[in-house]
Structure formats: structure tokens, C-alpha cells
Specification:
It is a single chain. The chain is of the alpha/beta class. It has 13 helices and eight strands. It has an eight-stranded parallel beta sheet.
């Protein structure tokens, strides 16, 4: 569903030159780091009762991009992951499916075949993941190959070196080019690798840059560095999405990825969503978790609510 054209038109003057884009990005309000972290911590203390917890667990399951991005990935592993995405708990058919399975481009066709007939999407990392250090033609070819193989969603990484060097227009134009390659065939998630951006101000600038360039989602991390998704950096990106929507009317999704491993943490992120952008974003079309081990803990907590007993990790599959 193409929603980005109005935003591109709205920011045509801002993105006309590197100097204009720099002025805009550096003119964004500075981030109060202490205030941001305090608000994220405060929202994380909200008490979630049993009925609401059951709803939150099912919602979180439905928002997971079940992910395997390892050099040792095999077709068998991808097929097993796809089976788990479609039926996370084989003993309980009321368990929601996950939102997507996320794999490298060479595994897209395998995932697509394994997920045939289900509502689970195939997401593929692209653009020289995880570093993002490649020429634009290589990135475009990487994206085109993934889409041709059946990818419904593309998770691209920005060139952090270019961004940190202040070459904002270069990063903008690359995102816009990848978005054009996706067209209406695939939704585009833009990964910032927030752990490498050094400051909250940079995360805010990257968020606006990605959204102006056509991102359908903005995503915290690759999961390949020491600092990935945190409540504070996700809150900051949610605030950027809220402000962007207020200014343009264009809704953008958010995907925290990496380091979210248990139900308690996942629910904290859902509270951030509800309190910052509202219930309209509490849907897997607009919010995702990039995770693998998170699903197992959600399933164990779901079983505990249903049976009153904690089953333990032996009762879920090992990814």
C-alpha cells in the first residue's frame, strides 16, 4: 500500500540539496536524554493484569518477525522456522501465527514455499546486511533478487559511515532508490543500527531521514552489535513516528530488533507503543519485534496462563 508519496512531496524542498537536508535535520529539537530514559523506565513499570497479559502475549506473538540470519542457515532450518511461524504451539491451535519469517535473500524462495497458503509474510534483509557498505547498484540488485524470489518485505540497512560523516543526502537517496525498487511489491523497513549512531539526536535525525525517504517501517537494529533495541531508543523512534504522522498524515511502522528475549520485556514495548502513538499502532501492520528466542518465552508464559503450570523450555522447539 503506497503511503509515502505525500511525504516525499511535503519534503521536496528539504531534500533538494545536502545543505538543506542538513539544516532540517540539525534543526530538529535536541533530545533530552535524561527525560527520555526516565519516561521509558516509568512506562516500563506499568502493571499488566491477567486478562490484559493474555491479550498482550497473543499480540506480541502476532508481531514477531521470526528471524534466522546466520551463515550456517540451511533450507531445513528455514523450513523448520516457517513451520513454527505458522503453528508456534502445535498443542494449541488458538495460538496466533507470527507476522513474518525473516531470512537472507538466498533463503527467500525456501521460506516462501514453506509458508504457502498461510498469512505469514516473508521478510528478507538486503543492501549488504549487516554493514550496509556496498555500492548502490549492488544494493539494488540484492533487493531485486529478494523480491523476485518472493519477499513481501525488505529490511535494508543504512550506511552508518555515510550518515555519521554527515552525508545525509547520500543516505536519503539510497533509501529512496531502494523504496523505488520495492515499489508496491514489498514494504520497506529501514534499519539504523541505533547502537552505532552514538547519540539520541542522531537516532532522531535518522528516523526523520528514513521516513522522508519512503520507509514503511523504521527499525532499530540488525541484532549483530552489542547494543540493539532498548526502551529508550524505541520510545524516541515512536515519538518521531508520532510527530511525522501529525505533520504529514503518513503512518510509519516501528520495529525494535535484537535483545528482546522475554515476555516481560515485550510487554514493556507494547506499553510504549500504546502510550506514545496509540492503539492504531498495536497491530502487526505497524509494529513488529525482530526476534527469535522471544517467541519461546511468550509460548511458555501463554501455557502457564492456560494451565497454571510453567512448562519450561523443553516444551517448546529449539530454533
Amino acid at each position: 500500500m503506497p503511503t509515502t508519496a505525500p511525504a516525499a512531496l511535503a519534503f521536496a524542498d528539504v531534500t533538494a540539496s545536502d545543505s538543506a537536508l542538513r539544516r532540517f535535520l540539525h534543526g530538529l529539537p535536541g533530545v533530552d536524554a535524561v527525560g527520555l530514559e526516565a519516561r521509558a523506565a516509568s512506562l516500563g513499570t506499568r502493571s499488566i493484569k491477567t486478562t490484559a497479559k493474555a491479550y498482550a502475549i497473543d499480540l506480541a506473538i502476532s508481531m514477531i518477525d521470526l528471524t534466522t540470519l546466520e551463515g550456517a542457515d540451511t533450507p531445513g532450518k528455514v523450513r523448520a522456522l516457517a513451520a513454527k511461524a505458522v503453528r508456534p504451539d502445535p498443542t494449541d491451535r488458538t495460538t496466533p501465527t507470527t507476522a513474518a519469517v525473516c531470512v537472507y535473500p538466498d533463503m527467500v524462495a525456501t521460506a516462501k514455499a514453506a509458508l504457502a497458503g498461510s498469512d505469514v509474510k516473508v521478510a528478507s534483509v538486503a543492501t549488504a546486511f549487516p554493514a550496509g557498505r556496498a555500492a548502490l547498484p549492488v544494493k539494488l540488485a540484492d533487493t531485486a533478487d529478494a523480491i523476485a524470489a518472493g519477499a513481501d518485505e525488505i529490511d535494508m540497512v543504512i550506511d552508518r559511515g555515510a550518515f555519521l560523516a554527515g552525508r545525509y543526502l547520500e543516505v536519503y537517496e539510497q533509501i529512496a532508490a531502494i523504496k523505488a525498487e520495492c515499489g508496491d511489491r514489498a514494504r520497506l523497513k529501514v534499519i539504523f543500527e541505533t547502537g552505532e549512531l552514538s547519540t539520541y539526536d542522531n537516532i532522531r535525525r535518522a528516523s526523520w531521514l528514513g521516513m522522508m525517504a519512503g520507509a514503511d517501517f523504521i527499525k532499530t537494529s540488525t541484532g549483530k552489535v552489542a547494543v540493539n533495541a532498548t526502551p529508550a531508543n524505541t520510545l524516541l523512534m515512536l515519538e518521531a513516528v508520532r510527530d511525522f504522522h501529525a505533520q504529514t498524515g503518513v503512518r510509519i511502522g516501528v520495529k525494535p530488533a535484537g535483545g528482546i528475549r522475554n515476555t516481560k520485556e515485550a510487554i514493556k514495548f507494547l506499553v510504549l507503543v500504546n502510550e506514545t502513538v496509540g492503539e492504531d499502532w498495536l497491530d502487526n501492520h505497524w509494529f513488529r519485534f525482530g526476534a527469535s528466542s522471544l517467541l519461546n518465552d511468550l509460548l511458555m508464559q501463554r501455557q502457564k496462563l492456560a494451565t497454571g503450570r510453567y512448562s519450561g523450555p523443553d516444551y517448546v522447539t529449539v530454533d
